[in-house]
Amino acid sequence: MITELDRGEFKKCRHLLNPQGQMEAAAVVEGVNPGRIFVDDRMSPTSGIIWLGNNDGFLFIGDEQNELFNQELNSFIDSVIVPEAQRVGLDCFEAIGNHDKWYGTIERVFAHRDLGRWNQRVYRLKSSDFDNNNEPELKEGYEVVKIDADLLGNKTAINANFLRLKIDEFWSSPEDFINKGIGYCIVHQREVVSVCFSGFVLGNIHCIDIETVKEHQKKKLGQKIAHCLVKDCLNHDQVPYWDCMEVNKPSVAVAERLGFQVTYRYVGYDFAFTRTDNISI
């Protein structure tokens, strides 16, 4: 029977993680970032699912050939995951294997669903590859500000909730982010228009999240703010980590312009929740 672990039990899953897999999974298991973990055996797990706290996917960990676990997946997702996912606004299930042997299992277990597929790239940046001379200039009226406790507590910004909600997607509290993460934003006429910060952290590795308000896109704000963040990381012996979809051309362009190098690729799958799923909210 698939069971949810308490947060204090997450480290039971350390041995299920692929050391070369997504660092986001390890960040949840180590208790750095929020998330939920469901396993086949509470006392001695061999397979599991990590629901990332920012609702950006479900990572499958451990033994992909665990048939008892695999046979229960569809009913568990329909009866437990779907209702809870819909309560937080999700309309699809994103399945990601922590190692590539999960791909075949995911395709087989969810073969009866309308299963989509996409490719993902993971980049890392070494100080020797960082192009420090490629920092764009901001137009007049735009200002880069480091995210700190004062900024997160400042309610004078026109869209003050935008920044706080972004941090809340990934972190248990603003204080937790301030203690463990790094971040910058760009302000224009008292409005936060671009943010770039540590979404997940594992040791000295910082997985970067970046977003620019639609009305201010195509002004190189993302490139500017990412440059500030990675420069800060490298100056403090931290490793910038960039995880994005291959079809996200703007994100790929920013990463590669800064000097990030692809370290590995993986595949993600998704299927929409249908009308026959449990939709009671």
UniProtKB/TrEMBL annotation:
InterPro entries: Acyl_CoA_acyltransferase (IPR016181), GNAT_acetyltra_N (IPR042573), GNAT_acetyltra_YdfB-like (IPR027365), GNAT_dom (IPR000182). One of its GO terms (molecular function) is acyltransferase activity, transferring groups other than amino-acyl groups. Transmembrane segments: none annotated. PROSITE patterns: GNAT. Residues 145-280 form the N-acetyltransferase domain. Keywords: Transferase. It holds the Pfam family GNAT_acetyltran. This is GNAT family N-acetyltransferase.
